[in-house]
Amino acid sequence: MYGWRGSILRINLSTEKITVQPLENSYAKNFIGGRGFNSMTLFKEISPGTDPLSPDNILCIAPGTFSGTELGLSSRTEISTLSPQSGILGDGPAGGSFAAYLKRAGYDPIVLTGKASSPKYLWINNSDIELRDASHITGKSTWQTTDTLMKEHGKDISVACIGQAGENLVRFASTIIDKYNSAARGSGAVFGSKNLKAIAVRGSGKVEVADAEEFGRLAREERHFIKNDDFIREISSVYGSHIGHGQMVSGLPLFPGILAS
Q: Residue 237 and residue 230: Cα distance in Å, rounded?
C-alpha cells in the first residue's frame, strides 16, 4: 500500500482499549486521507441528535496524503468532530509536524471515542501506544504543555494539545499543534469533554511511494521553486497564506491594513 501506512488507530477513552485496525484498500482509494477519512467515519458512526460535548461524540485526526513523504510543506493534520460551536461537522486543518510523525509512526487516521475517567494524554512512540496520566499538565497553556511533554519525551516529537479554553469547554476552543498551528471549529472543547489533554507522537518509519526516484525528483523541484520564488519568499512567508483571499493588483495582493495603501 503506497502513500498510506495501512492502519487505523482506535482509542476508546472510556475503557482505555487501544486497537489497530487494517486500512482497507477500497476505503483508502475512495476517501484518500485527511478530511475524507474523517468525514466518512463521522457520517457512519455518529447518530443524529448527538450532543457534541458528550462521550458519544467522536474525534477524528487524520494526516494528509503526502504527509510523511519528502514532499515539502505536506505535513497537514485534519481534526474533525461534531462541532460544539455549530452542532454540525467541524473541520480544522493545521500544519506542524504532527501529520508527518503520525504517518511515520505507522498510522493513517486516529479515531477517539468515549471519555476518560480522569485527565489523560495519548503517547504514541511508533508501535508503542499508551494513555498516560495528564494531571501534571492539566491547567497549563498549550505552550507549557508542549514544553513539558518535549522535556519528558524528547524534542523529536510533535504535540497536539489544548489549553485552558478547551479544558473549560469553550465551544470555539482550538486544538494547537506544535505551539503555532491551530485546528479550529471547536475540536479543543471536544478534547476537553473527553478528558484528553494532549496527543504526543514520535514516528521514525518511512512512507513508501510507488516510484521513489521520480517522486524525489518532483519533490526537489518543488522545494527549489518554494525557496526561490519571489512572491513566496517576500510576501507569503511574511504575511501568511491567507493572502490568497485578497485581490491581486499589479502582481501584489490587495488586502486591508497591509499592502492596500
A: 10
**Maximum separation of any 2 CA atoms in the chain, in Å:** 59
Number of neighbouring beta carbons within 10 Å of residue 230: 8
Taking CA 6 as the corner, what is the angle to CA 5 and CA 8, rounded to the nearest 5 degrees? Answer: 105
Question: What are the φ and ψ backbone dihedral angles of 161, each rounded to 5 degrees?
Answer: -150, 175
Give pLDDT tens digits along the chain (261 positions).
Answer: 899 999 999 999 999 999 999 999 999 999 999 999 999 999 999 999 999 999 999 999 999 999 999 999 899 999 999 999 999 999 999 999 999 999 999 999 999 999 999 999 999 999 999 999 999 999 999 999 999 999 999 999 999 999 999 999 999 999 999 999 999 999 999 999 999 999 999 999 999 999 999 999 999 999 999 889 888 888 887 887 665 544 333 343 433 333 333
AA identity, residue 17: K
- Report which residue type is found at 205: G
Long-range CB pairs of 126-135 (<8 Å, 24+ gap) are: 126/202, 126/203, 126/204, 126/205, 129/9, 129/11, 129/18, 130/18, 131/11, 131/13, 131/16, 131/18, 134/196, 134/197, 134/198
Confirm if 75 and 99 have CB atoms less than 8 A apart: yes
Backbone angles phi, psi at 199, to 5 degrees: -130, 125
Which one-letter amino acid corresponds to residue 219? A
The residue assigned the cell 499538565 is 137
What 3-state DSSP class applies to 147?
A: helix
Domains of the chain: 7-202 (3.60.9.10), 212-254 (no CATH)
